[in-house]
Structures are given as structure tokens and as C-alpha cells.
Design a protein that fits this description.
The protein is α/β, with parallel strands linked by helices. The protein folds into two domains: 5-169, Zn peptidases (Aminopeptidase, 3-Layer(aba) Sandwich), CATH 3.40.630; 189-244, no CATH class. The protein has helices at 5-15, 27-43, 112-127, 150-157, 204-207, 214-223; strands spanning 47-51, 58-63, 71-77, 97-99, 102-104, 134-140, 166-169. Strand 1 and strand 2 form a beta hairpin. The protein starts with a helix and ends in a 21-residue tail after the last helix. The protein binds zinc ion. Zinc ion binds at residues 77, 110-111, 143, 171. Residues 77, 110-111, 143, 171 line the site of zinc ion.
Length: 244
């Protein structure tokens, strides 16, 4: 693909837009990224619509060529993580550089590269004639801030715009030369705990072994979150997890 300029250029253009969803100063860049995607989808014959998000809108695109054919919905996100710390970049994060088979830029591997592969794959299919399925895309702009609107959008449009037979998530990765199908994505749950016992430093000769050291209490707490097989010990943690 890297040698095919027509397929590569749209990705490079998108990578140049600093669509950082977490930072207020990039709000106009977020819009720029949306406009770029809308323009790209329209040029391929898709019908597009902006879906209102709580913070940043999502881009929806639909190419239904035949109602009798099944429909594949492809998910991606156009927002990226902030590029800091900047001094660790060997090339500027929003000036994509192509070296051998790799592209270096913020978002190239998460997730602009991946959803652009899907868009360009559809472009290639269209060049060959009528594709065997209908295509829909939803490219959101809030993935890096916890996908705060995707659940309500999915509910709101599940019977019409987002109705599909298959759903593909582009937001995964594969090792070089090892094609893979991801069958499960994990999440995270984080919390910050501050613990203070005494209000000032205590003399070890007088208080040692008597007063609790917060470090030990926190270590005890952390060591009790999982058993030695990695299973979470928090009561009811697995209560709503369906078995495969
Ligand atoms: Zn991602």
C-alpha cells in the first residue's frame, strides 16, 4: 500500500490534522478531521451525516448499493492521544514521515491508519464494480475520552442508520506479517487513592511497629485485589460477565 500514492495520500492528509480530543485548543482541528472524512466519503459515493456527540461529533457514512445485500458497519475513531512528551519524537507527530514500510505520526497506529485501510479497501472494491456487501462507517471523535456518546448514539440509531448485519471494529492491531482477528477487547478501571495516617512524620524509635505506615496499608490493599492466578477478588466483580 505504501507504494500506492492514491491509497496512501488520504491517510497522510488525515494524519496531518492534530485531532486531539482531550485538549480544548484542538476543537477546530477536530472539526477539520471530520470535514476531511466527510469529503473523502462523499468522493467515494457515500452519503454522510454528522452524528451529534456530547463533546465531539461522529462521522457516519453509508454506501447502500443494494438493499438485498447484507450490510457491514465499520467502526473507527478520528481522535488521537496528545503527542506529549514532544522531545521523545524523532519526527514531528503531525508531520507524517514514511520510512520503509512504516509511517511515523500520531494516530498512524491508533486509529487513523486502521480505519483508512478499511476505507481504501472499499475504494478498491468499488473500482472493481458492485461490492458484495453494503458498507456503513461510523468514525467517532471521542474514543480517547472514553467514547462518552457511543452508547447513546448506538441506541438512538440502532434501528436505522446503524442497522447492520456485521460489525467490524478497526481499532485493533496486528503484528507485522501476522494477520489476526481480534475476538475480545479489554478495558480499564482506574481510581486514585490517597491515604494519610499521621499528620506529621513519626519517630521510628517511639512509633515504629505501632503506628500504621500508609505504604504498607496501600500495599495490602493492592495485593488483595487479585489472587495469585490473576483473578479479581473484588466482590461481585464478575457478576454481569456473560460466559462465552
Ligand atoms: Zn484506538
Amino acid at each position: 500500500m505504501l507504494s500506492d500514492k492514491a491509497l496512501l495520500n488520504p491517510l497522510l492528509q488525515l494524519l496531518k490534522i492534530p485531532s486531539v480530543s482531550t485538549q480544548e485548543e484542538h476543537t477546530s482541528d477536530m472539526e477539520k478531521a471530520r470535514k476531511y472524512l466527510v469529503h473523502l466519503f462523499n468522493s467515494l459515493g457515500f452519503k454522510t451525516k454528522i452524528l451529534k456527540g456530547k463533546k465531539h461529533d461522529a462521522v457516519f457514512a453509508n454506501l447502500t448499493t443494494d438493499n438485498r445485500l447484507p450490510t457491514t458497519l465499520i467502526y473507527g475513531h478520528y481522535d488521537v492521544q496528545p503527542p506529549d512528551p514532544l522531545e521523545e519524537w524523532k519526527t514531528p507527530p503531525f508531520e507524517p514521515s514514511v520510512k520503509d514500510d512504516d509511517i511515523y505520526a500520531r494516530g498512524s497506529a491508533d486509529n487513523k491508519g486502521q480505519h483508512m485501510i478499511h476505507i481504501m479497501a472499499v475504494k478498491k472494491l468499488l473500482e472493481k464494480g458492485k461490492p458484495p456487501v453494503n458498507f456503513k462507517f461510523i468514525i467517532e471523535g471521542e474514543e480517547e475520552i472514553g467514547s462518552i456518546s457511543i452508547e447513546s448514539l448506538a441506541k438512538k440509531y440502532s434501528k436505522n442508520l446503524l442497522l447492520c448485519d456485521y460489525l467490524m471494529v478497526s481499532d485493533t492491531e496486528m503484528k507485522k506479517n501476522h494477520p489476526s482477528i481480534d475476538i475480545g477487547l479489554r478495558g480499564l478501571l482506574y481510581t486514585e487513592i490517597r491515604l494519610q495516617t499521621a499528620d506529621h512524620d513519626l519517630h521510628s524509635g517511639v512509633y515504629g511497629g505501632v503506628a500504621e505506615n500508609p505504604v504498607n496499608i496501600l500495599a495490602y490493599l493492592i495485593s488483595n485485589l487479585k489472587d495469585n492466578k490473576g483473578r479479581v477478588l473484588i466482590p461481585n466483580f464478575y457478576k454481569d460477565v456473560a460466559s462465552l
